[in-house]
């Protein structure tokens, strides 16, 4: 019998070090921003709440949480085949996303240190949290005889420039959707322990509180900057980022539905619950949320999912690049049309939160 567990399943840059996943529109992004504009932000409108959040960061509730124990001391070769491949992809994507946050927050902390010390310390402490998360995930990859070279990742990835307000929209939603993703998986496995195929999920209850506190920080910063939340432009941008985050998660997760099935979850139902909860949470600060109950919302996402499957099939073919591009073009147009139609669905207006200054 051939031992397929020792057969390389992933491209490696050296033995045991996985080559980074190819960058696509759906992969975790690395960001940079206008540091000078961020440094000039006046936080006085909501400074008391920000200082209270800073004290929570300083308390470092999860300081001793991310410690591997005897639950990890076993072979994980029973997780094999396609499940193993999808599990490694899950760990890699999660590690890359956490490491992206670490890099951004660390650089913001360094650049703002002498100009906006409250923001700087908050970012430094959040970078501490993200470094722990990324390190814990990378160590988990070693149980599958792989790891990521995070230094190589730093140098090889392209960086997307976002203005500060876009950074706040995107990172707020990233942290809050992270909270709902982790807590939903944790609660499911708490009720169905037979589905917990790997111990990292048992860390998610405390872990997701880091995500929640980070999201609360971005909530407080945005409410200190009324221009980020007031007026037509703000409403349009909030709408765009909500849709982008929800669509990206849905298309990624449904592409990997076998992974969620391996831990006893239906990927569609899981994503719908996470999207609903994140949408409701965003309504506490954003002036609008999406109508995710509209019958067209998931219908159009399903159309994009089918289109993406066709795009992957074209990529896997042996045709010349020029021919591949010509075949892909109408599919790109189709996805763009679906996204535009989703964006134009009437959103739900939210009442201003008590204490919010406009």
TrEMBL record:
Pathway info: Porphyrin-containing compound metabolism; chlorophyll biosynthesis (light-independent)
GO biological process, any: photosynthesis
Key word Iron present: yes
Entry's EC annotation: 1.14.13.81
Major enzyme class: oxidoreductase
Cofactor(s), by name: Fe cation
GO MF annotation, one: magnesium-protoporphyrin IX monomethyl ester (oxidative) cyclase activity
Stored HAMAP family: AcsF (MF_01840)
The family this protein is said to belong to: Belongs to the AcsF family.
Function text: Catalyzes the formation of the isocyclic ring in chlorophyll biosynthesis. Mediates the cyclase reaction, which results in the formation of divinylprotochlorophyllide (Pchlide) characteristic of all chlorophylls from magnesium-protoporphyrin IX 13-monomethyl ester (MgPMME).
Protein name, per record: Magnesium-protoporphyrin IX monomethyl ester [oxidative] cyclase
Organism, as annotated: Petrachloros mirabilis ULC683
UniProt lineage: Bacteria, Bacillati, Cyanobacteriota, Cyanophyceae, Synechococcales
